[in-house]
């Protein structure tokens, strides 16, 4: 999609700049509301100040790493220790740290393309590389995305078997974020993997949020990751780290990936703050994710009940029972109206029920993403229903 703020006449540029300014003001207002609210369902690192983030890291760091160790240089020491920790958790031979998930997945998939002799990557139309990376696969890595389906669910085994053209790699995003953080059943996932194998393709998991999938599947991280030939995981999406990612898989693949990481500009001189925050996330957030998932289901039920009691037409929670600790809420109002209503409720009451952005889902229809983390564990079902009532009262 072309950026509307980067094209057009001078008048259009001025209008675009105004829209940008309005969005920036709303973003700052939203961040201030999250920071100032007494009650939120989640408050991640992006909602904290630099000083608070550094203080939190220094407080937690001694419990996860020996701070008297020398700092890292080009990926050794603490970074290598983090890589070993990830490989052990995922049950793989090795893992390599990357500064971004976009880089990690491009490297993984181009390595598989060289090995299979096929640069086509079968994926979902809503997969992250298709919707959020400015066509990086094709523009940077020479890969060719092939869409398996656009349905709001993971591809089925039948769709993979019946895909009309050959492909070298099947990429599955677990969970599929833009469809509502949805996951398949375990049998559906294993069937999809088997269908790819039948077509002599390798399987790569976009597991940016793989950490939060164990309650849904009822399997360990190693069992889930073991279905794929390679897996990418993020350190900030579920674990609230500063950033960074890891690519895990066979030792030979990971060693080749390190070479391409250097070529892509990912050989960073020192990364100990990011690596340390990832270790903190693995120690502190990873064990709590199942609790977040369980409580997200309580929150989702209470949201549905609250909107039903308020008689809001066509209010939806998707999925009705969340697969992870994150899910979508859909309401029949304009996105700007819903954003302003959420902000007013936070500023007037100190309760910020919907702290995320509202996106347009169609004429007069919008949705937001809800995340339940440690702060949300303090909310009872009654608290959620009361917050819904206060939110609806402020709708025009």
UniProtKB/TrEMBL annotation:
Q: Spell out the Gene3D superfamilies in the cross-references.
A: Aspartate Aminotransferase, domain 1, Type I PLP-dependent aspartate aminotransferase-like (Major domain)
Indicate whether Lyase appears among the record's keywords.
yes
What are this entry's molecular-function GO terms?
lyase activity
Please report the name of this protein according to its UniProt entry.
Answer: Beta-eliminating lyase-related protein
Its lineage reads: Bacteria, Bacillati, Actinomycetota, Actinomycetes, Kitasatosporales
Give every Aromatic amino acid beta-eliminating lyase/threonine aldolase domain span: 74-305
Q: Which residues form a coiled coil?
A: none
Tell me its family: Belongs to the threonine aldolase family.
Q: Which organism is it from?
A: Streptomyces pyxinicus
Entry cofactors? pyridoxal 5'-phosphate
Q: Which Pfam families match?
A: Beta_elim_lyase (PF01212)
Keyword terms of this UniProt record? Lyase, Pyridoxal phosphate
Q: Which PANTHER family match?
A: L-THREONINE ALDOLASE, L-THREONINE ALDOLASE-RELATED
Region (Disordered) location: 1-26
């Amino acid at each position: 999609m072309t950026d509307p703020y980067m094209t057009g006449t001078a008048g259009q540029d001025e209008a675009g700049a105004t829209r940008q300014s309005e969005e920036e003001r709303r973003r700052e207002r939203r961040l201030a509301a999250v920071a100032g609210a007494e009650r939120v369902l989640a408050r991640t690192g992006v909602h904290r100040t630099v000083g608070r983030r550094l203080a939190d890291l220094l407080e937690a760091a001694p419990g996860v790493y020996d701070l008297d160790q020398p700092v890292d240089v080009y990926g050794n020491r603490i970074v290598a220790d983090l890589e070993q920790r990830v490989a052990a958790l995922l049950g793989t031979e090795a893992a390599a740290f990357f500064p971004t998930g976009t880089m990690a997945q491009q490297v993984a998939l181009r390595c598989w393309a060289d090995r299979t002799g096929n640069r086509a990557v079968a994926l979902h139309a809503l997969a992250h590389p298709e919707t959020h990376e400015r066509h990086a696969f094709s523009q940077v890595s020479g890969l060719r995305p092939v869409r398996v389906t656009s349905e709001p669910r993971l591809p089925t085994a039948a769709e993979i078997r019946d895909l009309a053209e050959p492909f070298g790699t099947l990429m599955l995003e677990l969970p599929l974020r833009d469809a509502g953080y949805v996951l398949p059943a375990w049998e559906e996932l294993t069937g999809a993997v088997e269908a790819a194998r039948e077509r002599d393709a390798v399987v790569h998991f976009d597991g940016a949020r793989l950490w939060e999938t164990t309650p849904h599947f009822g399997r360990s991280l190693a069992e889930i990751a073991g279905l794929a030939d390679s897996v990418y995981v993020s350190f900030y999406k579920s674990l609230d780290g500063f950033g960074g990612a890891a690519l895990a898989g066979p030792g030979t693949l990971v060693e080749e990936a390190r070479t391409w990481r250097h070529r892509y500009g990912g050989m960073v001189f020192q990364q100990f703050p990011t690596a340390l925050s990832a270790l903190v996330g693995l120690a502190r957030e990873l064990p709590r994710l199942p609790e977040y998932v369980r409580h997200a289901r309580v929150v989702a039920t209470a949201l549905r009940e609250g909107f039903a009691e308020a008689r809001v037409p066509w209010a939806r929670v998707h999925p009705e029972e969340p697969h992870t600790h994150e899910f979508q809420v859909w309401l029949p109002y304009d996105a700007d109206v819903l954003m302003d209503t959420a902000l007013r409720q936070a500023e007037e009451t100190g309760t910020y029920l919907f702290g995320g952005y509202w996106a347009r889902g169609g004429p007069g229809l919008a949705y937001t993403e809800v995340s339940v983390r440690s702060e949300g564990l303090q909310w009872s079902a009654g608290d959620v229903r009361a917050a819904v009532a206060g939110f609806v009262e402020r709708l025009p």
